[in-house]
Each structure stands twice: as C-alpha cells, then as structure tokens.
C-alpha cells in the first residue's frame, strides 16, 4: 500500500469518527484505541447494587477525591474528554445545574478521560479555563473505565444521597435532559 492510499484511509476514518461524535456520544475504545459506532444518547436502566457506588480519582493537584466522602449529597459524576464535541456541548448546562443547585447540596464532579484517550492532563486546565467550569474536575484512568464499565463519553452518573446510583445517561441527550435528571435526583 502506498503512502497516498494510507493517508486517504486515515482521512476517511477521521471523517467517519467526527461524524459519529457529532451525532451521538464519543465512544473511545480503551483497549483498541479507536472509536466504536455510536447511537444517540439516553438514560440506561441501572440495577440497584448491594453496596453504594464508590471510587477514588485524583484532582488536577493530585489530591484524592473519593465519592464516598460526599454521602448525604446528591452527586452528578460527568465523564468527558476535551476532544469530544457532545461533551463540549453539555458542559455549559452542567455549569448552570451546578450553580443553580449547589445551595441545595448538589455536587457535580467532572472526570476527564483525556489520560485514557487523548492528549492527557496538559489539555485539561486550558479547557477548564476556556469553558469556565465551576465544579471540581478530576482525572479518570483505565481502572475506572473497567470498574464502571464506561463505553462512551459523555456519560453521567446520578448518585443519590445514600451513595447508590439513581440513573446513568450515556451519550448526548436532548437539551434539558441533564437538568431534568438533576431535578429528579434532588428529590431523592
């Protein structure tokens, strides 16, 4: 195969990935390092677990952030990446949700997946500044992807005050879907 055809193939794959990302969610395949097909986002039924959801991530300063430390608060955990167009679209809505409901105890935690697939931590801080993200940000890793069975970004987990997952939104939903889910979460 000559260089031109290899370059053309790469360009076609890049265009296909961008189209999929714009239509639905961004699906990084952690093991293969290439995108998987995407459907439109939406809520996924969740099973109640015997144990509350818990994991530990590191914030940008390297400090441990433990989900269990926020028991008693409703929590939205948003998994995103700087390279994901639907993630970029949802962040202003998450900022608004956080500002509106933080006085009612709501916590929003953004977990960047840029170290799993992307350019890593170095692109996250400028992204936070550009989008004026008001809520805490941490970095995800492959162990977290495996533990939570994450297959795409954006993915949002809605965690009730008792630590059990209330719902899960995979991919980009319609405008207002995050706000409706946040309002439901606050009632629990």
Please give a structural write-up.
There is one protein chain. The chain has a single domain (40-187), classed as Glutaredoxin, CATH 3.40.30. Helices cover 34% and strands 19% of the residues. The chain has five helices and eight strands; from the N terminus they run H-E-E-E-E-H-E-H-E-H-E-E-H. It has helices spanning 3-23, 85-101, 124-131, 142-148, 177-187, and strands at residues 42-44, 56-59, 64-66, 75-80, 107-112, 137-139, 155-159, 165-170. The relative contact order is 0.21.
> Please, how many helices?
5
Query: Average pLDDT across residues?
Result: 81
Number of strands: 8
Element order: H for helix, E for strand: HEEEEHEHEHEEH
Distance between the termini: 59 Å
CATH topology: Glutaredoxin
Radius of gyration: 17 Å
In order across it, which strands form the biggest sheet?
Answer: 1-8-7-4-5-6-2-3
Judging by the overall fold, what is the CATH architecture? 3-Layer(aba) Sandwich
Strand content: 15-25%
Low-pLDDT stretches are 1-24, 28-39
| The CATH class | Alpha Beta
Q: What is the percent of helical residues? A: 25-40%
Instruction: Please tell me what the overall shape is.
Output: globular
The assigned structural class equals alpha+beta
CATH-assigned homologous superfamily: Glutaredoxin
The total tally of domains equals: 1
Largest β sheet strand count, sense and barrel closure: 8 strands, mixed
